[in-house]
Amino acid sequence: MLKQVEGSQAVAEAVALCRPEVICAYPISPQTHIVEALGRMVTAGQIAPCEFINVESEFAAMSVAIGASAAGARAYTATASQGLLYMAEAVFNAAGLGLPIVMTVANRAIGAPINIWNDHTDALSQRDCGWIQLFAEDNQEALDLHIQAFRLGEELSLPVMVCMDGYILTHAYERVEVPRQEQVDAYLPRFEPRQVLDPAEPVSIGAMVGPEAFMEVRYLAHAKQQHALELIPAWAEEFRGVFGRETGGLMHLYRADDAETIIVALGSVLGTVEDTVDELRESGLRIGVLGLTCFRPWPHVAVRAALANARRVIVIEKSLAVGLGGIVSANVRGSYTGHPDDVHAVIAGLGGRPITKRSLHDVLRKAVSSELGPMTFLDLNREAVERVLAREREVRRSGPIAESVLRDLGVSALKIG
Amino acid sequence: MTDQPIKFYQTGTFTVGNRLLPPDQRSVQANMRRTNSLNSGHRACQGCGEALGARYAIDAAMEATGRRLIAANATGCLEVFSTPYPETSWQIPWIHSLFGNAAAVGTGIAAALRVKGQTDVRVIAQGGDGGTTDIGFACLSGMFERNDDVLYICYDNGGYMNTGVQRSSATPPAARTNTTMPVGKGTGSAFGMGKFVPAIAMAHDIPYVATATVADLRDLEAKIRRAMGFRGARYVHILVPCPLGWGHASDQTIRIARLARETGLFPEFEAESGEITRVTPIRHRLPVEEYLRPQHRFAHLFRDPPRTDLIRQIQAIADRNIRRYGLLEREEAG
Amino acid sequence: MFQVRIHGRGGQGVVTAAELLSIAAFREGRHAQAFPSFGSERTGAPVVAFCRIADSKIRNREPVIAPDAVIIQDPTLLHQVDVFGGMIRDAYILINTSRDFDALGLGDFLSGFRANHLCTVPASELAVRHVGKPVPNAALLGGFAALTGLLGIDSVVAAIREKFVERISEPNVAAAQEAFQLVREKTEALARAEAS
């Protein structure tokens, strides 16, 4: 059924359709609407049987999900930013134990300085934990990816992170097609665990593994993610058959076939990028887009093929590896067969700074005229930065960094674009 | 002929305790059909109080639940010595997740069982004092607050023993650990610190809280059995001496535990919904020196000159426990 | 595509206004996107929300920089925040006030704009009368429907009823309908005056 709802609501309805059995969550902006909606549905009996547990921290949320999943229940939780970090130990634990938990990450920046707005630092900080990481381009895809995630996770016995941009998607009202229960039931069967705590057949889960076997255990984790690279597109195709739309899969290509310049990005910025690309195409530029849906496992072969004929690659990413540069761009560079210098990192949108078509036009024109360096911070206020650095050189007690910048910019609560 | 109750002080042994006791008071361990949930072959130290306590507690729980039990274990000695890869000594479904989340994992398991309608299967979450009073405290309190149907068992040996004897918030005052060395002005673990989690558990008004030691194994079994008769959050705190960490001979484990009770340093009681319901009285009260002397972790109190000031402070703690929990029968009180 | 920017203060239902616009557009079979600017929201602080309406899928997610219409829920923002920034020349402006544009100090600024795209409506007063609280968003949407003709008043009413329970929706519907009438009368009067 077609609905005009907030992204969080769409995700809650998708999760509800997947018949979760244990939902545990700790509130953190901007995920709160998702768990509130699910809580209402459980209380109203719309999801049954289901236990909704108000936990005392994100660490507890993931731990409760671990216990529930190990006991054979379909478990779900959601978090963002600081919460994801707080549960980091348990996040690695869930992947290592092979428990098919599904978690929504409402992507948000990580402090310090504290910032509640969108970027991809949180999810990407956990990129090596062993979870499958999928990024939604819009609210329809966010909804659909959750359904695919439960199926994927349970088949592989791996946890899956569905990432959607905090506020930009979670708090945006747009139209979505909410599937019927029969459709979801046809796609997602009952949870049949590969391992389960059962008094009738006791097993020990979570033993210590020493040097004699740890390498093999880790190799198997990697092999499982490689296997996911085959399953993800196959099941996205099956999804299309049941639900009638193309969502998920490893990536979405847009006007990339004959493109000389290809933009790579994840998440909601792809919408703005595609509009910009259409405008640039009208002025004759051969430019296209690789929208990555699956970040982990890294679709090396598919990325390599998609970028094979591109002369240059512009990675627009809402993430930064401090001290190194781009994160996504580093991964892309590893798959690009051209010269590494032809992969340009554009760090954009950190901490929720809007990415405008105007700025995209500007940076893409520079890219096409070969004026772009290996790494660019989009819309950086260079003067403000220089002033802070100069002050630090002159004065020992230069004060907290964030406050210096804010004072310098004279930021009011409101700047539009 | 009238029935005359006979007090058997030797019911802590196998010989008298089982042949002459009514069946419901016999130790589970003496039963040939005991489940041996923590089976032999584990790698615990000789004389490990935790291995003893866990074996008794889990077998008692298995009997009380008709062998329908799942356990979540925190990282620590028990987890490490019971599951040396590729073996496991556990005969029950068992999961080890992390150091600080045993209570939360237990919550999750209980939720899953409820959803599946398998409410006859019961859940134990267990860990040492480190994983309970420190790093696992938040999850423990959360489980209590929600009244999740989990029995949490804390095996308290007063320190992080698995990592080489470091101080926890359960380490008693003046005890030496590798992070509270009695050197210079140091007295060992500081006075005025530490927390007594059974009292904190009671403050949550959960259905059942009990303390026990491995010196009173029948009592321990009975408390586990009673705990399994309740639904909701329950907490059993067992004092388990650690020969290595405490510095006593490995054949003294049970005696040391008994001394902890008889000096008043470890109160044995039960509580329901925050109110104490039963106290195990001290039979023959002893001064705290009797407990401290046999343990090398307190050796610094007995050098030349002895630290009578610290011993007096420890005695005051024992006196306070006796008063607070009513550990002496009326005649001996005061 | 039609882009709306709504300015107000926290607690005045600015975000809800954008959402209701999007629901109204959806009910007319159009694509719509509504989202708030993501500032530190607290009661009384300036808040902006955006709504885009189009006949095909809306992909762009940047803030509305060049609005086709600006709704101002709180006139105290006029000289504090750049509420008119980026506005196209023929943009619609609807301000919640019982005063006129000259009294607000906007007479000169608006002199180059199409007069029948500009309107004021005392939405807070209407809200107090119908709803009992000065939350002007529903009334402003009724006025917006009349001013722009972009959405029918029936769609606005249906959106309000979809989002709120009857106890809350009906008074707001009444406020919206009265505002619709008021603005329609004003624009018709203006048209008659221009024609003569």
Describe the overall structure.
- The complex is a heterotrimer of chains A (417), B (334) and C (196).
- Chain A is α/β, with parallel strands linked by helices.
- Chain A folds into 2 domains: 2-243, Rossmann fold, CATH 3.40.50; 251-377, 3-Layer(aba) Sandwich (Rossmann fold), CATH 3.40.50.
- In chain A, 42% of the residues lie in helices and 18% in strands.
- The radius of gyration of chain A is 22 Å and the shape is globular.
- In chain B, α2 packs across α8 (217-228).
- By secondary structure, chain B is of the alpha/beta class.
- Chain B has helices at residues 14-19, 49-64, 77-82, 102-115, 129-134, 137-146, 197-203, 217-228, 243-246, 253-263, 289-292, 308-325; strands at 69-73, 94-96, 122-128, 151-156, 208-213, 234-239, 269-272, 275-279.
- An 8-stranded mixed sheet of chain B has the order 2-1-3-4-6-5-7-8, with helices on both faces.
- Chain B contains 12 helices and 8 strands.
- Chain B has a single domain (34-332), classed as 3-Layer(aba) Sandwich (Rossmann fold).
- In chain C, α1 (14-27) crosses α3 (137-148), α2 crosses α3 (137-148) and α2 (123-130) packs antiparallel against α5.
- Chain C has helices spanning 14-27, 123-130, 137-148, 153-163, 166-195; strands at 2-9, 31-36, 46-54, 69-72, 92-96, 118-121.
- Chain C has 196 residues and is of the alpha/beta class.
- Chain C is built from 5 helices and 6 strands; from the N terminus they run βαβββββαααα.
- The longest helix of chain C is centred in the C-terminal third of the chain and has 30 residues, at 166-195.
- Chain A binds chain B through residues 21-22, 24, 49-51, 53-57, 59-60, 63-73, 75, 89-90, 93, 97, 197-199, 201-210, 212-213, and chain B through 67-70, 72-73, 79-80, 83-86, 88, 90-98, 100-101, 104-117, 121, 138-139, 141-142, 145-146.
- β9 (204-205) of chain A pairs parallel with β2 of chain B.
Count all strands of chain B and give the number: 8
The CATH topology of the largest domain in chain A turns out to be Rossmann fold
Work out the radius of gyration of chain A. Answer: 22 Å
Helix content of chain B: 25-40%
The global form of chain A is globular
| Total helical segments of chain A | 15
The structural class of chain A is alpha/beta
CATH class of chain B: Alpha Beta
